[in-house]
């Protein structure tokens, strides 16, 4: 009986939480629910402070902050859209928007956003939230996170290897040679680089742009197909060779998340770890006293430092009765000075040109300047507008890349799975 009562109470709380934003007191105040996915303390604090500042100066339009989770956001949003209980303002990532945009769940923001905001964010960033033949815009891209290499400064300097800069990065071929030199200098049981590839698809595709890889190709009729070319093979092939052929990267970290590699990194077991830019916060907070680290750009290919990115986004639900008020809040929330606060709170980079030019994002401390330099070369992730990408990623690409990187399958089998199995998945989403 106790379990039944607890479950019933939880259900009541869930239902009231879903509807509180729509059923406030009849006092003429517009109440909008803003579901944020901020999770680090600094980021949550920045988001809540901005909501409080808005509420203090806009008594007729109040924002209710709702805490969401990156771990479950896609399924949670899908359920809330189908049930008519979606938040008015939605925090997500651009590579999660395609199915919601095509499904009619998100508002086209073109008639809602002020020119100031539209002009401040570069066209390449707007491409990440633009879908359909009519080029509708279904989210505001506001934070972006390049991939960088976090390195043990003392190991690099003592080895004598060339340290890369954004102006003179390593090539992928040089990166492999550097890894061999570092591993030899470090001694038994230690490795030049640890690849945390629990989620291998975005890493492989986004870094693959540096070598000219695209993987997804849109045909004249609008359909998307997968083709795995020599350019697409450069980055996956390098990672495979580091692990399987050269043994300069351990197999044991392939199934790990980024945070899982940090204890070994701090202990000197790995000289370098490729990570998202935001991991600098954990390193700054958790590194032992005296540990010296530096931020390096990811290796460059034929396309230089170009890499794909799926920015964090803010959208408005199509079913929201207060789209105009929601857009006004977005305009406030994403003013340049506020975008800087959000970026620093998340240890990421803003998409807005005025915010990105802020001096605080160009300091050498904690590698901000390296990230800001790489930000100029960020482009939409290859899968941004591909319908069916989540299923392709989960059912086809993730297991294929995991097995390839561990040495369980060869490059030919990786290509077959990504192309043949992958195109069968995508075809179901593109039937007319």
From TrEMBL:
This is Extracellular solute-binding protein. It comes from the Bacteria. It comes from Streptomyces exfoliatus (Streptomyces hydrogenans). The keyword Signal applies. Keywords: Signal. Residues 1-20 form the signal peptide. PANTHER family: ABC TRANSPORTER SUBSTRATE-BINDING PROTEIN, ARABINOSE-BINDING PROTEIN-RELATED. PROSITE patterns: PROKAR_LIPOPROTEIN. InterPro entries: Bact_solute-bd_prot1, SBP. It holds the Pfam family SBP_bac_1.
């Amino acid at each position: 009986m106790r379990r039944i009562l607890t479950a019933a109470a939880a259900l009541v709380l869930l239902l009231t939480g879903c509807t509180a934003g729509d059923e406030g007191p009849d006092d003429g105040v517009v109440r909008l629910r803003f579901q944020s996915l901020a999770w680090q303390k600094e980021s949550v604090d920045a988001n809540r402070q901005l909501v409080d500042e808005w509420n203090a100066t806009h008594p007729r339009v109040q924002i209710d902050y709702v805490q969401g989770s990156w771990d479950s956001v896609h399924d949670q949003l899908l359920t809330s859209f189908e049930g008519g209980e979606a938040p008015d303002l939605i925090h997500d990532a651009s590579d999660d928007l395609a199915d919601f945009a095509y499904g009619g769940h998100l508002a086209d923001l073109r008639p809602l956003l002020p020119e100031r905001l539209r002009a401040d964010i570069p066209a390449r960033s707007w491409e990440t939230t633009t879908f359909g033949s009519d080029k509708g815009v279904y989210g505001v891209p506001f934070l972006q996170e390049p991939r960088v290499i976090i390195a043990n400064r003392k190991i690099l300097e003592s080895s004598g290897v060339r340290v890369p800069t954004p102006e003179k990065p390593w090539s992928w071929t040089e990166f492999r040679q550097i890894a061999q030199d570092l591993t030899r200098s470090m001694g038994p049981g230690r490795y030049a680089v640890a690849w945390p590839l629990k989620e291998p698809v975005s890493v492989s595709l986004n870094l693959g742009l540096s070598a000219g890889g695209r993987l997804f190709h849109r045909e004249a009729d609008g359909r998307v197909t997968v083709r795995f070319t020599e350019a697409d093979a450069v980055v996956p092939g390098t990672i495979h060779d580091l692990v399987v052929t050269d043994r300069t990267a351990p197999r044991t970290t392939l199934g790990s998340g980024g945070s899982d590699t940090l204890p070994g990194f701090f202990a000197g077991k790995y000289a370098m770890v490729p990570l998202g830019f935001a991991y600098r916060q954990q390193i700054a907070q958790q590194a032992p006293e005296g540990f010296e680290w530096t931020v390096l750009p990811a290796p460059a290919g034929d396309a230089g430092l170009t890499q794909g990115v799926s920015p964090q986004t803010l959208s408005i639900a199509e079913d929201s009765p207060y789209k105009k008020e929601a857009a006004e809040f977005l305009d406030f929330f994403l003013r340049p000075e506020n975008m800087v606060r959000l970026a620093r709170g998340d240890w990421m980079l803003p998409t807005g040109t005025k915010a990105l030019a802020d001096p605080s994002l160009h300091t050498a401390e904690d590698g901000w300047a390296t990230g800001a330099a790489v930000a100029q070369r960020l482009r939409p992730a290859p899968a941004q507008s591909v319908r069916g990408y989540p299923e392709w990623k989960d059912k086809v690409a993730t297991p294929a890349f995991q097995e390839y990187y561990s040495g369980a399958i060869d490059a030919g089998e990786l290509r077959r799975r990504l192309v043949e199995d992958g195109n069968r998945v995508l075809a179901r989403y593109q039937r007319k």
